[in-house]
Write a structure and sequence with these properties.
Blueprint lengths: L1 H5 L4 H10 L2 E4 L2 H11 L6 E4 L12 H4 L13 E6 L1 H12 L11 H9 L2 E2 L27 E7 L2 E6 L6 H4 L1 H6 L5 H8 L2 H7 L6 E5 L2 H6 L2 E4 L4 E4 L11 H11 L1 E3 L9 E4 L8 E7 L2 E5 L7 E6 L7 E6 L11 H6 L6 H12 L15 E2 L4 E2 L8 E6 L1 H9 L13 H13 L1 E3 L10 E10 L2 E9 L4 E4 L5 E3 L7 E3 L2 E6 L9
Parallel strand pairs: 3-6, 7-15, 18-25
Antiparallel strand pairs: 1-2, 3-4, 5-6, 7-10, 8-9, 11-12, 12-13, 13-14, 14-15, 16-17, 18-19, 20-21, 21-22, 22-23, 24-25
Helix pairs in contact: 2-6
């Protein structure tokens, strides 16, 4: 603290610390008494603190104040401060930190203390250990001990290094920096800070990412706003329930929807890609039209346009600007089936609808609608929209063949009997692959469990997928081809594919 104050070469860094983190509080009685005993003068005594910093640079008591928290005063170690010169700070501000701000006063305290704390180490950093010792953000000292260090001194409570560049912290040099240093994305930044796991992913230089940015206006259009005074999110769903009714879950799901791991999406072409991290995301689709890149999620009634790429060149990916945010769906899967009920899925849907309208012999009181399907809620019985699901819908011609083969009962003016209802349920459940999303481009060769269970328990189909095709093989060796131009339909945590023949379930 003394060395920083005495050397004008670090005045910009020092002044930021003083203005935004330094605080004075009235000392407690025991401190005033010590002062009186030591000086013979009875006066007001104030203590200088640095709330918000990783450590107070004027604190001599390393252990008592440090991470070990021991109650003794002997010096076992010390702090380390890398103080950038005025020229280094000014260059960083001009090129990156204040690129979208007029001054530090326009930034949040968190943004400013992040910048400061990137230069504070809670332990001694020796010149030979720059690449091994981590700051409070888990980063090593990204300085060259010879080319970047212009000043070095061992002070009474730690090591002081003067450096001619700022710490290249991941807070600013990853895709997080595109959000962290732009006031247009303050709400998205606050949302990210609400989820430490997401924050750690975005600033991890080892995780390749594509980020789809949501600006403040778009966040508010979705009903999200942050109450600074109360320190909490407030949410009014402005899209008729399309984002669900749990603020925290909806916010997390929204963020995962706008993260793509692995730089897998080529927005100059047509495709589908998984968002989020480690299966904690959704699927979105994109396509080219009129020389524009369109993109949408399962909840988008209107497709968004990618209006630009952020030119900051982060070291772990690329960020994109959208004309509108992506939206996930909270609908039950019947909503998507009914959208195509007059074309591709007509015959399949007719069986769901007939099951719903038939007398439910398993529920004589009729307290639940239908045996297999509910036309009001759009729920296929036991298919949960909180789980991943893949649904395989046979073509209308394939359904007709299943009727001719006696696998499905014909639809007549009469209700389905209990036996017929069971037949339809068996057929539908054998075409649903729960707990997973299966896409052709995933290149999967594997067995997939179905929802249908016979007397022996779980049943399976075999999947063989490549970039542009996928086949499904049933229990009797029948090969069904996925009809690519009628597949990859987005639903709520689900994908719907059309297949060119029906799958035969094992009865025993």
């Amino acid at each position: 603290d003394d060395y920083l104050n005495e050397h004008e070469n670090y005045s910009m860094f020092r002044d930021i610390i003083k203005k935004y983190t330094e605080a004075f509080v009235e000392a407690p009685d025991e401190v005033r008494l010590l002062f009186e005993q030591g000086t013979g003068s009875k006066e007001e005594v104030w203590m200088k603190l640095y709330p918000g910093l990783a450590f107070a640079p004027n604190c001599e008591n390393y252990l008592r104040y440090g991470e070990e928290g021991e109650e003794n005063d002997h010096q076992k170690g010390g702090w380390t401060l890398f103080a950038p010169t005025n020229e280094a700070v000014q260059q960083f501000f001009d090129e990156k930190f204040l690129k979208h701000y007029d001054s530090l006063d326009d930034m949040t305290v968190d943004q400013i203390t992040d910048f400061l704390n990137a230069h504070f180490w809670l332990t001694s950093v020796w010149p030979s250990k720059f690449d091994q010792t981590q700051n409070t953000y888990g980063e090593t000292a990204r300085f060259d001990a010879y080319a970047n260090v212009v000043d070095k001194v061992i002070c009474s409570n730690g090591i002081f290094y003067g450096v001619n560049t700022v710490q290249a912290t991941d807070l600013y040099y990853t895709v997080l920096g595109d959000i962290n240093l732009n006031p247009d994305y303050v709400l998205m930044l606050q949302a990210i800070r609400s989820f430490p796991t997401i924050l750690s992913i975005l600033k991890n230089p080892e995780v390749d990412l594509q980020m789809l940015l949501i600006n403040n206006t778009q966040m508010q259009q979705l009903g999200f706003d942050y109450n600074v005074d109360l320190g909490r999110w407030e949410w009014t769903d402005a899209y008729d329930g399309s984002l669900g009714n749990n603020t925290t879950n909806a916010l997390e799901r929204l963020l995962f929807l706008h993260m793509i791991q692995g730089k897998n999406a080529d927005f100059t072409t047509d495709g589908i890609v998984q968002t989020g991290i480690d299966d904690r995301g959704e699927y979105i689709k994109y396509y080219q039209k009129f020389n524009l890149s369109f993109i949408y999620g399962a909840g988008n009634s209107r497709h968004s346009v990618i209006t630009g790429e952020v030119d900051s060149e982060p070291n772990n990916g690329q960020s994109y600007v959208l004309s509108a945010p992506l939206k996930f769906s909270i609908d039950n899967i019947g909503v998507q089936i009914e959208q195509y009920a007059t074309t591709n899925y007509k015959s399949f849907y007719n069986y769901l609808k007939k099951s719903a309208e038939s007398l439910n012999e398993f529920d004589p009181t009729q307290t639940m609608q239908g045996y297999l399907y509910n036309t009001e809620t759009k729920v296929i019985t036991d298919v949960r929209n909180t789980d991943n699901n893949t649904l395989l819908i046979p073509t209308n011609e394939a359904i007709a063949k299943a009727v001719a083969d006696g696998v499905l009962p014909p639809i007549t003016g009469a209700d389905f009997t209990a036996a017929q209802q069971q037949k339809v349920a068996n057929f539908v459940y054998y075409h649903i692959l729960p707990k997973r999303i299966i896409l052709p481009q995933n290149g999967l060769t594997d067995a997939a469990v179905t929802m249908y269970k016979n007397e022996n328990g779980e049943t399976y189909v075999s999947i063989n997928a490549s970039d542009s095709s996928m086949i499904v093989i049933d229990s009797q060796g029948t090969v069904a081809n996925v009809v690519m131009d009628k597949s990859n339909v987005l639903a709520n945590r689900a994908i719907i594919h059309q297949i060119d023949t029906y799958l035969r379930y094992p009865q025993n």
